[in-house]
Amino acid sequence: MKKSAIALALAATLSLVGSAFAGDLVIKGSTTVLPIAQSAAEKFMESNSDVAITVSGGGSGNGIKAIIDGTTDVANASRFIKNKEVKAAVENGTYPVPFAVAMDALIPVVHPSNQIKDLSIEQLKKIYKGEITNWKEVGGSDARIAVVGRDTSSGTYEVWESKIMNKDRVTQRALVVASNGAMVQTVAKNKLAIGYIGLGYLDKSVNALTVGGVEGTVKSVLDGDYPVSRYLYMFTKGWPTGDTLKFINFVLSDAGQEIVGNTGYIPLR
Amino acid sequence: MDERIPGWLITLTASVSLFIMVFLIYFLLQEGIPTLREVSLKELLLGFDWYPTEEPPALGMAPLIVGSMTVTLLSAVMAVPFSFLIAIFLSEVAPSWFREILKPALELLGFLPSIVLGFLGMVVLAPWLQERFDLLSGLNLFNASLLMGAMIVPIVASLAEESLQAVPRELRDACYALGATRWETIRKVVLPAALPGLLSASLLGIMRGLGETMVVLMAAGGAALVPISIFDPVRPLTSAIAAEMGETPVGSAHYHALFFAGLLLLTMTLGINLISMWIEKKGKERWMA
């Protein structure tokens, strides 16, 4: 009862002061990190009812740009900041500070009927470059390979490109799907397909491949054995203070890392 | 005084919507044109490499443009004749009670959300096509065109039926009076008389297909490739915009290029619209004279 009265008063005040104060804490950026930020913000506001947090997506690049422009307090990013972006930020007088908040692994997946169980990074690269076009060349049955990739703008694609492709282009013949969910659907329905998804999206409808003999699991990722993994970051505008500091600390706390696990990503400990 | 109020009201609403339209076009131009500072128009329109996130970005839209055109044309080729047959049946052959039921049903079908069709294409049609024709993937030009065809049939058929209905009774009666059969009347009198209407109905359907996003996003396969066979995957302009805009940094070359793609789509639909208007005008001149 009391809580809703406060919320009502807060809403009234907010509507009076307009959008300039809509949320004490603004979080923007990567759609990959979005689920973590959202659940963390919800949990955080339960115990800190005086802090209003606004969370939105828009992509890693957009989040970091917002840090550079000073229009957000926290930027979610599924990649590290680029040199160009650091330079732009410093020129604008802001100093982005990275906090790794979780890890994510990309798992190559094939149709359940496919007998291939393992591919090396080199084989994966050749398949995605379009040099290997038949499953027979990697020890499978004599059938063509339907390569499925992600949109070049997605953070997932960026990780695949840096960890697997290493400066080579993914073939133009590759099918492109718009999300992890669509990837699972596509591979599950196509006997010839190979694709890659975030660890959290893995289910029984597709077969996970090991990469160079290493299975992608929470443990192998944390040990650093699994090669196709990445950190997920939250960047702050300068060293965090006040509510921003409290929020970052919360995400890194046991409770925050439990949320990370619940959203399908890998907690840092 | 009070008689003037409706007039004012209409003027006001009309100018507001007009203002919004002009603003939209202005915005598209403002966000789309800057891409020409980074890439030449020639490279944008004729380049074959679409790797927009590379440094520097490769922004060749030719595969996307060709993708848009092929999906739209193939769907029209499949859908238009079928739509005309439905229209002829509804307008000239079916008994009126049957028409009363079928026409609203057809119009309702036109409102089927395209994402439903896209999902069917992805989950049902794609695996079937792949098995049936032994393809690399069922997500391809053919799949998307088939679904898009299914989507524009109700629209084209319904409009075509209306233009058949608009052919004056007297023409038919005169034809029958000369002793012509029903088929001869349809073929020699009704169809030629309704031709401009039929053409503009097809063009409206084509325009709908050109702007359609969900079906191509889900069923066309998404490879930025100039298709050689109808079973190759394609990536039309609309699906490129939809898939990439979300993660594109505002103000980057890629961002402006996507707005430029929007501008291209607008130009293409505008072109079709002008053709359709021209056909209608010609038709009127021919039959009113």
TrEMBL record, chain A:
Top-level taxon in the UniProt lineage: Bacteria
InterPro entries, per the entry: PBP_domain, Phos-bd, Phosphate_ABC_transporter
Leader peptide range in chain numbering: 1-22
GO BP field: phosphate ion transport
One of the record's GO molecular function terms: phosphate ion binding
Coiled-coil segments on the chain, per record: none
Domain named PBP: residues: 23-254
The entry's keywords: Phosphate transport, Signal, Transport
Function recorded in the entry: Involved in the system for phosphate transport across the cytoplasmic membrane.
PANTHER family: PERIPLASMIC PHOSPHATE BINDING COMPONENT OF PHOSPHATE ABC TRANSPORTER, PHOSPHATE-BINDING PROTEIN PSTS
Similarity-based family: Belongs to the PstS family.
Protein name: Phosphate-binding protein
TrEMBL record, chain B:
Main location: membrane
Domain of life: Bacteria
Sequence intervals crossing the membrane: 6-29, 64-90, 110-129, 141-160, 189-207, 254-279
UniProt domain ABC transmembrane type-1: residue ranges: 65-276
Any GO molecular function: phosphate transmembrane transporter activity
Keywords for the protein's UniProt record, in alphabetical order: Cell membrane, Membrane, Phosphate transport, Transmembrane, Transmembrane helix, Transport
Record membrane topology: Multi-pass membrane protein
Family: Belongs to the binding-protein-dependent transport system permease family. CysTW subfamily.
UniProt cross-references to Pfam families, sorted A to Z: BPD_transp_1
Gene Ontology annotations of biological process type: phosphate ion transport
Localization (cell): Cell membrane
SUPFAM superfamilies: MetI-like (SSF161098)
Keyword Nucleus included in the entry's annotation: no
Keyword Nucleus: no
Protein task: Part of the binding-protein-dependent transport system for phosphate; probably responsible for the translocation of the substrate across the membrane.
Stated name of the protein: Phosphate transport system permease protein
